[in-house]
Fold this sequence. Notes:
Blueprint: E1 2-6, H1 11-27, E2 32-37, E3 53-56, H2 62-78, E4 83-86, H3 91-99, E5 104-108, E6 119-121, H4 132-137, H5 161-173, E7 182-186, H6 198-211, E8 216-220, H7 226-240, H8 255-264, E9 267-271, H9 274-279, E10 286-290, H10 295-298, E11 308-312, H11 332-335, H12 339-350
Amino acid sequence: MNILLVRLRLIGDVVFTTPVIRALRRHYPDARLTYVVEPSAAPILHGNPNLTDIIVIPRRRGLGRLADDLAIGRDLRRRHFDLAIDLHGGPRAAWLTWASGAPRRIGYVTAGRSWMYTDRVERAPDLGPRHAVENQWDLLTPLGIEAPAPGRDAVAMAPDAAAARRVDERLRLAGITSDHPLVIIHVSAGNPFRRWPEAHFVSLIAALVQRDPGRRIVITSGPSDAAAAARVVTEARRALGPLASALPETGEFDLVQLRALICRAAVYIGGDSGPAHIAATTETPIVALLGPTLAERSRPWRDDRWLSVTVDAGSLPCRPCNQRRCAPGDFRCLTGITPSQVAAAVERVLASRPVEAIAPPG
């Protein structure tokens, strides 16, 4: 069996497909599994033991993309796939799935594109209280594969020894040793609907360090939010005063290094973004800040042995939302999550006590 998987963009969404990869390997142990992905999310798949091949395709616009896609389509057809599964559903992914020439092609029911598939699966509502992993798993239904379970079908990203050594060296140069409880705080997200206020991050950092000055805080962000991360660091150091050494300079980390860094941490804190789901591929405890998304859909998908806590603003008439326009205009699903709530969740996690999802007081 020669199987093609297509999932373009985003980092978290590609992480959510890794249980599907494992399930296909379990169901077809001798299959050749090839995955088509764009560059930004390709590091998630490198080293995955269940994949035979990874095809990283460029993401250009206009005539450049057209030329790329025609060449990629010809290459896919030459590989003679028996089965192609479109895990994305967008126009480009649908076209590549069809262009592969696989006699069996599975994809979501989508207006204008369903004809490209031989097997069509209804897509679950994006805002429904059902996890994104389960939604993508629906595409395995035509193959008779049983429903997923987080313990058996957790998200995955392969460790990288070279990245781990590089991270260890950078932490050493920053004066961080194994005696320092390491707290990773990711301050950016893919859109403003998932971005906790900078001032809240500053207050959280101050509270965590004042509680235990031996802690070391490492701030991470995506490239587009480097300026926001720098502002958080500057303001937090100002707030910490003589304790500012708890927030050392460590530089930026790529995705593979970020995973290695999280593996070293006592806890990871961040919003609903790709790095939070990378964190879910480790055993490190997670405190996830959920704004417009529901825990049922976006919680860390992994074995229950590894502690994960979700913190949100509770029930709001506008939550969940489609993240295109904030109806109240004040992003209350994010601003309503207070630093004290998050700090309390972190302290419980660091004390290794089981924690339920934390709602606002009152």
